[in-house]
């Protein structure tokens, strides 16, 4: 009967074990990596011995650690080691006046995220407070680095860019910097791991992205800032588009100070459109002749309207200019009366060849006119209108042969020949172009 009577007493004693133990602490705490947090707490425990008056040792353990074989993350017991990864960062502080404690965490790391429990040990007390625990959440910093440069980016001019982060770790942890972007493809990768970047922007770098990354050493935490480069450059890739009656025509592309010649057919209206690539945008204008000759500006926009036939002839120059430089291209226009003629100038035809071809064609047209005039004069002066010099146009596969002769001296005959290639490229030399009278074509002196 004695054991049965003692059982309720022993059972009741076990239910009394947790009575008098209380921990007051904030159960969930969030802190950014690299920063610190102050977690106040207080506790109470029953005294088992009336003669004990000292303070017990207190500990904070990580959830899952064995209290006998694992080191605590923080303790006030000078004879007990703490975990190496929390040493110096997790500290216990006590306020004697308020009889309160606090867990001070410096330079929080992502690996600190987890659940911690509190334990107290004394001569007559050894107890782990598992009914209330501390849940610590370490998040990535929300701050981003900034990219600074003292002057505007200009193509071809070296400049320094600085990546700065105002975040300062409580423990003085260092940061590692790196740069990335299409503008850095030609640079030595070893020079891209510093907070200061020295590089020379190019015009093709305008509008591309440049990123500065800052990594927090000891954590898998990366902060970055991306900017879009604004690179200034002088006008280039200047081009001129020709439009006939709102129909896009030939596109002329030329380098600075290079001219293009173009033959156009009769048109009531012609529009020249000048386009240049530059940053900042270039000021475009049209001049008659060359601006170097102090020519008068005839248009202050990229479009030049030539309404009439006479106004479309001559040399026109488009000039693009911004604070970094200028570029110009000239176009020489000549009107041809043959409506079947259509012009198309390509990149390979730019330069002096179109002008030479124009001069040759004009010389051949003039020769045809002089030949017609000479034949008519010989007929009326040497043959008396109906007798005298003769004109023959015998058919030939080699072209047309014009032969002039005199009845007084057959040895004074003159023959002028035209090849098929010459006739094809010069319609004015066709037999119909001579416009001779019927009696002149049928008579021979």
Task: Please tally the helical runs, counting DSSP H or I stretches of 4 or more residues.
Answer: 4
Spatial sequence of strands, sheet with the most strands: 2-9-8-4-5
Structural class of the secondary elements? mainly beta
| Mean pLDDT level | 74
Backbone shape: rod-shaped
Kindly report how far apart the N and C termini lie: 170 Å
Rg calc: 49 Å
| Biggest sheet details | 5 strands, mixed
- Count of β-strands: 28
The percentage of residues in β strands lies in: 35-45%
Are there runs of 5+ residues with pLDDT below 50, and where?
Answer: 1-16, 246-257, 339-353, 385-423, 425-445
Q: Specify the helix fraction band.
A: 10-25%
What does this protein look like?
There is one protein chain. The chain starts with a helix and ends with a helix. It is mainly beta and 445 residues long. It has a 5-stranded mixed beta sheet with strand order 2-9-8-4-5, with no helix packed on it. Strands 11, 17, 18, 20 and 23 form a 5-stranded mixed beta sheet that branches. A 5-stranded mixed beta sheet has the order 19-25-24-21-22. Residues 1-16, 246-257, 339-353, 385-423 and 425-445 have low confidence and may be disordered. Strand 24 (314-322) and strand 25 (325-336) form a beta hairpin. It has 4 helices and 28 strands. It is 12% helix and 41% strand. It has helices at 2-15, 353-382, 420-425, 438-442, and strands at residues 22-25, 28-32, 37-44, 57-62, 74-75, 90-95, 100-105, 114-121, 126-139, 146-148, 153-154, 159-164, 175-181, 196-199, 209-216, 221-228, 231-244, 247-253, 259-265, 270-279, 283-288, 297-299, 303-306, 314-322, 325-336, 390-392, 400-405, 414-418.
